[in-house]
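Hello, quick one for you while I still have it in my head. Could you read through the record and tell me how the tokens relate to the sequence? No rush at all, and the record is pasted right below.
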Amino acid sequence: MATRRGFIGGVSTISAVTLLGTSTAASAVEVTDPATDGIVAASPEAELAARDAIRAVNAGMRSNYAALKSELITHLSPVIVVQNDAKGGKFTLIDNGVVQEAVNPVAEIFELAKSISHVPLGIFSIIAPYLSNRVPNLPNAGRVDPHDLRMVASKGPLSDGWITPLQGFATTLTTARQQLNRANLPQDLRISFAKVIDEALTFIADSVRGRSFDMASFETFSARVYPSIRTNMTYAANAQITAIEGLMQRWRTRIGEAAWADLYTVVLSIWTTSELNQASIIIKRCMNPAKVATHLIDLPTVQLPTDPIFVALDNLARIVQDNIAAEMVFPTDQKVADALKGKEDLLSDEILKQLGVTTGVRTASAASAVATCPVQRTTAAV
């Protein structure tokens, strides 16, 4: 989705040679027509050159904006960057753009509990392409999008390509089950792990033996293991809360109350975990309540970046400098200034206005705009 920040962050360059060359060409062909109130009648080449000159203004802005951002990154302080991962998250403390400490503080129980809880998803990932593309008559059938199912079930039930990979996963599960008693786990967690694995191996054995499965048989299996998965989730959540709150207290002592009051936290996550993110929920309780709304930043990404620290600081620098730019560039319109400071695109209000959407509620406005999208729209409607 194109956004204001993405637009500013784009790369666009126009060489000095091109600009100088087209400027000369334009001046040679410009003809003033009195009937057009001074508007120049120009050749197509001259028009292109003129428009390139206009684009160069934005290119200059982008260059200066990027330079300011690069300088600002070295002054960002204090900042915590959170990378969500299988171990409960990697947390990095930054002062004046320099990493002070990076740690995975969450106890290993978190990773182990999530690993076993992912067993049903592991089986699903193998068998999904071989499902029937018709929604069966199940209690939750109304929640299954038929179009989504047709895309996922791309191979259909007539192929048996799922058998070998499913047997391979069964081997992995069997090894884990055989080692379970040596893992030094709390008793109820060990029992829940065993339940999930045993039920999974039974589902796999039954499916391979009968050379068939369907959505109903899988849902019967997943329903049986769900109580055990809830037990795993309890342990995982407790491990994460205890570790993160302990780390926040240690870092708070380290940097002092004055600095902590202005703390920024950037939480990197993929879209599917960006709302009510587990790390954000916990850290929010540890930050200055008066600044949480503006200083706790959930940053969804398409994929977790290869250089998460730079991505976090780069985006934070944009946010921080926009906070100041907003008040200076739009001192007479607080609503537009707030848009520049926040997540809204600067054109959002004008687009909603031209579409005739006046509810004032963003989510409702968007839904209304889509629902009334015409087949064709001409500039006459503006």
In short: Residues 73 and 97 are 6 Å apart (CA to CA). The two ends are 23 Å apart (CA to CA). The first strand starts at residue 31 and ends at 32.
